[in-house]
Amino acid sequence: GESVGLHLPTLSVQEGDNSIINCAYSNSASDYFIWYKQESGKGPQFIIDIRSNMDKRQGQRVTVLLNKTVKHLSLQIAATQPGDSAVYFCAESSLLGKLTFGQGTILTVHP
Amino acid sequence: DAGVTQSPTHLIKTRGQQVTLRCSPKSGHDTVSWYQQALGQGPQFIFQYYEEEERQRGNFPDRFSGHQFPNYSSELNVNALLLGDSALYLCASRTVQGAYEQYFGPGTRLTVT
User: Fold this and answer.
1) Which of A50, A64, A99, A100 to mutate to test the interface with B (most CBs of B within 10 A)?
2) 10-residue averages of pLDDT along chain B (113 residues)
3) Is B65 exposed, middle or buried (CB count within 10 Å of its CB: 0-12, 13-18, 19+)?
């Protein structure tokens, strides 16, 4: 099932540090995974995705790692900036595009 | 190129009333999904529309219904509102022929009093 709860995990980092946000997913048959960033009062914003036949994918300042053995995803943000402060969600996508979101993580970047 | 747009931005309703939320997908997208996001939680899938039909549905009661128009825009209707329906309602669009990537709108904040 999906994670629920009012108290999201938090991660506080200093500007310029690297951040690592972790996520566990539930469906071993999932083929596609996405990381979303959600700022206060806004909808989720696509960051990066990865297919299940890959274990790593890099974007601009972000890297997603997929470990299917333990059903774990991570998002690495290099040189974190204050503008990266937000809630980060991982999501699994079904073939037809139904997204199942994991528990979010609140990232706070201190100048 | 306009992204996903939603209206209204905010809405306050009373228990028992009905509400209609609207979504226009990103240009070129033909599939629209609706999500409910309660405070402090991740979005929960309500349903998805493609070719003007509901193609998938999440674990939501029949009070939640929708519609997709020929121009791919969509409406979410909620009847007999409950206090627990207070949430941010998000619309996401994609193209069925393209990648899995979905784009979200800014959401409609619904408050039920």
Assistant:
1) A99
2) 90 98 95 95 95 95 97 97 97 80 94 97
3) middle
- B66, B54 in Cβ contact below 8 A? yes
Non-local (6+) Cβ contacts of A48 within 8 A are A34, A35, A57, A59, A62, A63, A64, A75
Kindly tell me if the per-residue pLDDT of A105 is higher than 90.
yes
Residue A3 contacts B where some CB pair is shorter than 8 Å: yes
* Closest by Cα among A27, A18, A46, A16 to B90: A46
Tell which of B32, B33, B100 to mutate to test the A interface (max A CBs under 10 Å).
B100
Q: What count of other Cβ atoms lies within 10 Å of the Cβ of residue A65?
A: 17
> CA of B37: which chain A residue's CA is closest?
A43
Of B21, B49, B99, whose CA–CA distance to A95 is shortest? B99
- CB contact under 8 Å between A101 and B42, yes or no, is yes
CB contact under 8 A, A93 and B100: yes
Reported as a single tens digit per residue, the pLDDT across A36-95 is 999 998 999 999 999 999 999 999 999 999 999 999 999 999 999 999 999 999 999 888
B32 CB within 8 Å of a chain A CB: no
